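Retro notes, item 3 of 5
We never archived the inputs for the magnesium ion complex last cycle. Fixing that now. Sequence and ligand:
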Amino acid sequence: MNLEDIGYNSIVNKYVEDIGLDKSNIGRVVVVFKDRYIIRTDSGELKATVTGNFQYSIENKSELPVIGDWVHLHKSDNNRALITQVLSRNNYLERRTVGKSINKQVIAANIDFGFIVEAITENFNLNRVERYLAICNSANVKPIILLTKIDLISEHDLKSTINTVDKRLDKVPIFAISNLTNAGIDEFKSSMIKGKTYCLLGLSGVGKSTIINTLVAKNMIKTKAISKSTNKGVHTTSHRQLFLLNNGSIIIDNPGMREVGITESTDGIEITFDIIFELAEGCKFSNCTHTHEKDCAVLNAVEKGNLDKSTYDNFVKMKKEQFHFQATLVEKRRKDKTFGKMVKNFKENKNLEK
Ligand SMILES: Nc1nc2c(ncn2[C@@H]2O[C@H](COP(=O)(O)OP(=O)(O)OP(=O)(O)O)[C@@H](O)[C@H]2O)c(=O)[nH]1
Ligand SMILES: [Mg+2]
Ligand SMILES: [Zn+2]
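Structure as it came back at the time:
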């Protein structure tokens, strides 16, 4: 297997050549455990960690290697290596992590398509799909909706659900599959492009890992039955992993995500809700928030039934979240600055005392 098989292309190559790196020391991150990595290189798989120098030189955790990254290595014996550098990312998917803190998490890097996976049964939620859409759109990752477990509902219900999704998210391709009966799999599989990288996104238990098993047609990943008592997904996948499918495309499996928080840089909201941004041209005030203003074209459209109320509600919620994230970020920067000053003063006072 060579690097081209796992997504190495002219963009990565240009970067490698521009900074004069040796291609034989380049690899792609194919498995991420907490702080350990497996890197695929021209000469096979290597177990790797990050050099101390690298760790100290970074300002932000998001600069650490993530699944899908291209990295430069120092190889040592026994198939081990040290990661010395993460090559510039062509793009990356990120979200705000659970909790009140304002941590961002990079999910995966260098992605062409995002599969937004939803089980068509319990818990099916279009608002969540829209969140994933915003995250994909922000990263310039092409979204594809993948509805799973269609064996569990009637053909009639399936049709009407697909209609609902199609109506609300008309620009996004939709596939509907069953990992149990293999319904829809052939069409879905043939839509995938050789050499492109796909990333599976979605709640725990929706069938992400099972899809990989279906696509490679052998059980590479263990999946567990949904716990009956709680009806919640058992977290089977605990690490991120990149697979090469036998159709030549590359796919990343992730642990299920309970929350997909919006960050300050989620400008994908505008693309996802483009209908609202088009309507907004007609608002009386240019800084209209579309929540209470007079002569708001967006509110008028909701009232007249020209804009789906749930789309509107989800938009407002995500905008608020983004605003909140921005405000917390500003506050954090202010605190960091004050703290920095304090340290500086402290040091200066110490010097005076000498
Ligand atoms: N009936 C039915 N069950 C499915 C289908 N796809 C997956 N399952 C089952 O759903 C359960 C969860 O599937 P997983 O593939 O582990 O789900 P996951 O999205 O990888 O979950 P996490 O790893 O926790 O994020 C397993 O018991 C699968 O057998 C399907 O199309 N139909
Ligand atoms: Mg899984
Ligand atoms: Zn408005």
